[in-house]
């Protein structure tokens, strides 16, 4: 059971990230704000609680490896890495999407070594993570490998090849997280290419499946805290059921907010008010 103090700390960190993302969405020409907000709680937990890393030495051999497969939501990881001390978040605000910036819509390892892979072409992150997990396992290393995917990319064939491969190779050092917000750029996943019953399918593929509310920080912490030893033979998949645009009433479950910019200052202030008041209500309830 997650410690209350840890959960409350992580909730405050997640609030700060949501405020950062909304500010970036207000000032820039393009962010994938809907998916950024849905994955915030999971990503904050990874960078503030779960993963081993050295922000001053991103390629430290003892690190846990993190692969962002849903690369269009790099903004959320940028902000979480800045919060964890990898770099100054002001650089993100000052240079995002500018020529020669380290911070583009999609992360690029040619200019930012805090990522393991360049991202953007969906459906490949899991297979690459399987390769890394296999290599670490064969080298006798204890590093964990995490990969964060979107549910839209789960309609890709390479994803299902990877889902078959990881249990076959007994990669207990691998943890896959699916941000199951039920929306892609084209609309609701169940209308385009239905994935349900997704948890049952994944279990049938011999994964250790942890099915959670991915916007409930206590459940997120419990899921990561319950990962089996990396020497185990069964990979884990955390099915994080989230809300796209989480916390903003006009963004939640709205396909229009797959990507966009908050152009109106009044709307921006309303967004900040909504996420702050939600956190205040949580504090009052506790």
Please describe what this structure looks like.
This protein is of the alpha/beta class and 286 residues long. It has one domain: 3-Layer(aba) Sandwich (Rossmann fold). Helices cover 44% and strands 12% of the residues. It contains 10 helices and 7 strands. It has helices at residues 4-27, 33-50, 74-83, 89-95, 125-138, 157-168, 189-192, 198-204, 217-225, 265-285; strands spanning 65-68, 145-150, 174-180, 183-184, 187-188, 208-213, 236-241. Strand 4 (183-184) and strand 5 form a beta hairpin. Helix 1 (4-27) packs across helix 3 (74-83), helix 2 runs parallel beside helix 3 (74-83) and helix 2 crosses helix 9. The protein is globular and about 55 Å long. The two termini are 16 Å apart.
Helix-strand layout with pairing:
Layout: H1 4-27, H2 33-50, E1 65-68, H3 74-83, H4 89-95, H5 125-138, E2 145-150, H6 157-168, E3 174-180, E4 183-184, E5 187-188, H7 189-192, H8 198-204, E6 208-213, H9 217-225, E7 236-241, H10 265-285
Parallel strand pairs: 1-2, 2-3, 3-7, 6-7
Antiparallel strand pairs: 4-5
């Amino acid at each position: 059971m997650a410690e209350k103090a840890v959960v409350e700390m992580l909730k405050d960190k997640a609030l700060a990230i949501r405020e950062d993302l909304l500010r970036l969405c207000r000032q820039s020409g393009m962010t994938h704000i809907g998916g950024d907000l849905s994955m915030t709680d999971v990503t904050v937990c990874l960078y503030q609680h779960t993963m081993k890393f050295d922000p001053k030495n991103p390629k430290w051999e003892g690190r846990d490896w993190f692969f962002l497969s849903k690369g269009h939501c790099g903004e959320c990881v940028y902000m979480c890495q800045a919060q964890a001390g990898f770099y100054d978040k002001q650089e993100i605000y000052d240079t995002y999407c500018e020529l020669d910036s380290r911070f583009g819509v999609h992360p690029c390892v040619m200019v930012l070594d805090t990522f393991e892979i360049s991202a953007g072409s969906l459906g490949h992150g899991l297979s690459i993570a399987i390769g890394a997990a296999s290599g670490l396992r064969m080298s006798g290393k204890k590093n964990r490998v995490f990969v964060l995917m979107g549910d839209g990319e789960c309609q890709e064939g390479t994803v299902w090849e990877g889902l078959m491969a990881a249990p076959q190779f007994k990669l207990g050092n691998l943890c896959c997280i699916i941000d199951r917000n039920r929306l892609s750029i084209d609309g609701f996943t169940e209308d385009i290419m239905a994935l349900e019953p997704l948890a049952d399918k994944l279990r049938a593929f011999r994964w250790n499946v942890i099915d959670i509310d991915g916007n409930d920080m206590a459940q997120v912490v419990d899921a990561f805290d319950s990962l089996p030893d990396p020497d185990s033979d069964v990979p884990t998949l955390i099915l994080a059921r989230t809300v796209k645009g989480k916390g903003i009433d006009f963004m939640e479950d709205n396909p229009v907010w797959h990507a966009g910019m908050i152009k109106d200052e009044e709307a921006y202030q309303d967004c900040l008010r909504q996420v702050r008041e939600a956190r205040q209500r949580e504090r009052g309830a506790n």
